[in-house]
Request: fold
Amino acid sequence: MIKVIIVDDEKLAIDTLSNMLKAFTEIEIVGTAQKAQTALKMVSELKPDVIFLDVEMPEMSGLDFLEQMDYMKNDCDVVMCTAYDDYMLPSFRSNAFDFLLKPVDTKELEIVIQRLSVNKEKKREITGTGDNVRKQDEENFIFYTNAIDFRLVRIKDIGIFQYNHELRSWEVIVAGRKEPIKLKRSITNDQILELDRNFGQVNQKFIINIRYLLEVKDNFCKFYPPFDEIDYVKVGRFFRKRFIERFNRL
Reply:
């Protein structure tokens, strides 16, 4: 079965596509969402094979959603659905799997489903299971937890580094783990910041993976899934200006 999530801010569009997909026995619709944030959480939790994604959404555009998807742990195909063919080239440049114009044509949808089925089979041949295909160029870090023990962590799984004052050492919060990974006491904040350009310090106690940062509200960071439940990371006054200078501002 091909597990599918449909993301569109219009309920009628979701219902229409859902009814069309029911004609394909290989398709299982595991979730629908009208908000991008809800959809990102679904992707993290349900790990679909395919997302049918609208482009023009008020909270986050489909292209921005694609960029965030590229940085998430789950590997799935994205089919863009829109009434505007101007988005076709940007969608493919953002690694969309396929593109459907609204109103969706039944024959075009059938071709897309066939392509998705073939692609899933190819993934299964590569991995043996067809799930959680790992990209060849993903960067991994080895974090030493003591003199001899270490843990291998993908950069895409790293959300936050936090300093534990009781242990006098840094910890790293990683997707899929309930407890932080404790690092050696000798590790410094400067060493962590040098690991990747997307790591930014927002407080003496916190270094975040900027690719998961959604917004700063009332001076507290809000994050994309799977770190969306973390609500205690505050931007310190000393670090705020230096942090903001990294971005273009409007």
